[in-house]
Amino acid sequence: MEQGIGFLALAVAFFVGIHAVPAIGSVRAAAVGAMGENAFRGVFSLVSAAGMVWVVWAYIQAPVLDNVLWTGRHGAKHTALWMMAISFILFVCSLTSPNPTIAGAEKLLKKDEPAKGIIRVTRHPLMWSFGLWGIAHLVNRTDPASLLLFGGMAFLALAGTVMLDNKKKRLFPEEWERFSAVTSNIPFAAIVSRRNRLVVSEIGWWRIVLGLAIFVAVALYGHEWAFGSRTIPY
Questions:
Q1: 3-class DSSP state for residue 122?
Q2: Quick check: helix, strand or coil at residue 119?
Q3: For residue range 148-207, what is the model confidence (pLDDT) as tens digits?
Q4: Is residue 190 a contact partner of residue 63, using CB atoms and an 8 Å limit?
Q5: Minimal CA–CA distance to 100: which of 91, 112, 109?
Q6: Burial class (CB within 10 angstroms; exposed 0-12, middle 13-18, buried 19+) of 178
Q7: Is residue 59 within 8 Å of residue 8, measured between CB atoms?
Q8: pLDDT tens digits, one per residue of 62-81
Q9: Is the CB of residue 92 less than 8 Å from the CB of residue 211?
Q10: Cβ-based neighbours of 137, under 8 Å, separated by 6 or more
Q11: Is the Cβ–Cβ distance between 165 and 181 less than 8 Å?
Q12: Residue 201: which residues within 8 A CB-CB, separation 6 or more?
């Protein structure tokens, strides 16, 4: 039983580590210098995919133990559903909107108005999507295996936003200063502080509707079909 949890802990540590270590400028620079940018990205993608497979397999194999902190009740499940709905919207927006923080899209920093659409809300919509996904699951699942998996993924996603900010600031100091002045890592912080404004038409209603439609499909059918557990608290 302890070996099962330990195996999952090792898998999560490996997955977090392979994303955290390359974020260190000197480590990434040395790797890119040795194999080239494209080769580095290819190797990193393969290792990352292998790490994710390991994490999922280890989680499936992990023993089911009693909850250690709390049991998600009716209100907690509603909270998790709202978080997941926002997560799906951010996920769709992140995949269909230009974002200067994504690798290879740095040229967008040079635009007259680099922060548009969902980037006005947060400059890391994809990472916040994953972060909210992890937190939403922790609201209801606090057994040791779930704490390791969802806690580890949430930590990696949200810590990753800071690592990405530091990386872009180091590589593109002038462009990043201008970009970060009108954007925020924390969703809506730049809008609340009046450094930017919410423009729903730029985000695109179709992205919001698509994100909600996918969320409803997963909540009603997909999650129970794939994992055997209902997400609708009725």
A1: coil
A2: helix
A3: 999 999 999 999 999 999 988 988 999 999 999 999 999 999 999 999 999 999 999 999
A4: no
A5: 109
A6: middle
A7: yes
A8: 877 655 555 556 667 788 88
A9: yes
A10: 80, 146, 150
A11: no
A12: none
Name which of 107, 104, 111, 5 is nearest 45 in CA terms: 104
Report d(CA 114, CA 73) in Å as an integer: 42
Taking the CA atoms of the chain, what radius of gyration do you get in angstroms? Answer: 19
Contacts of residue 31, Cβ cutoff 8 Å, sequence gap at least 6: 22, 40
* Amino acid identity at 23: A
| Residues with Cβ within 8 Å of residue 63, at least 6 apart in sequence | 1, 4, 5, 145
Q: Which of 121, 119, 146, 124 is nearest to 135 (CA)?
A: 146
AA identity, residue 58 = A
Q: Would you state the structure tokens that stand for residue 171, as one six-digit string?
A: 């590589």
- Residue 2 DSSP symbol: H
Residue with tokens 């609201």: 139
